[in-house]
Amino acid sequence: MSRVRLRALVDEDIPVLDGWARDTARRSEFADFGLPPLSHADLLARVAGDPRTGFLVVEEAGRVAGSVSWQAVAYGPNPQSRAWNIGIELDRDFHGRGVGTTAQRLLADMLFATTDAGRVEASTDVENLAEQRALEKAGFRREGVLRGAQWRGGRWHDLVGYARVRAD
Ligand SMILES: CC(C)(COP(=O)(O)OP(=O)(O)OC[C@H]1O[C@@H](n2cnc3c(N)ncnc32)[C@H](O)[C@@H]1OP(=O)(O)O)[C@@H](O)C(=O)NCCC(=O)NCCS
After folding, report:
1. Which spans of this chain does the record mark as coiled coil (predicted)?
2. Given CB 3.0 to 4.6 Å as the disulfide criterion, which of 66, 67, 83, 128 pairs with 119?
């Protein structure tokens, strides 16, 4: 059985996740948007009962390793054209151990199993090779470059778009 699982955020997680969010030295350059640190209590309140977004804690062997989130992206006005865009952030201590691969595979599996969406997508900086590799290992297919899509560190960054579709 995999040692990685996704589960709902509980109150006890909030100091851990808020602590990581405040610790700029631990933050990956790819997750640093120059915004004030995220309050996970606020986030919990925001996503509760909102079907267009979600957030789960990633656990490895019973320890909090990070989080995954998703939000609806509309590719047309009908419900069938709603896709999910996912994101992930793991604490540094958990990088490079296969956790990101498994967590993103589990999240895509869950979204296909629990919603009617035909597409789960993710994008990442063209320089974020670890995330590109993790997405590929999780069954996502590279689709192309989204030029100048993200502002971080004082400049626009190109992203690589990936997706898994229901038929994959
Ligand atoms: C990106 C992230 C989710 C990946 O999760 P992870 O658990 O570290 O990744 P995994 O261990 O599952 O897989 C990483 C793969 O990338 C490879 N890799 C890591 N660094 C690499 C690099 N600099 N160049 C090339 N490949 C690299 C690893 O070797 C591994 O591939 P392998 O199993 O074939 O050897 C995680 O590192 C993270 O949270 N980073 C900070 C936040 C972030 O970048 N989030 C995504 C923003 S879009």
Report:
1. none
2. 83
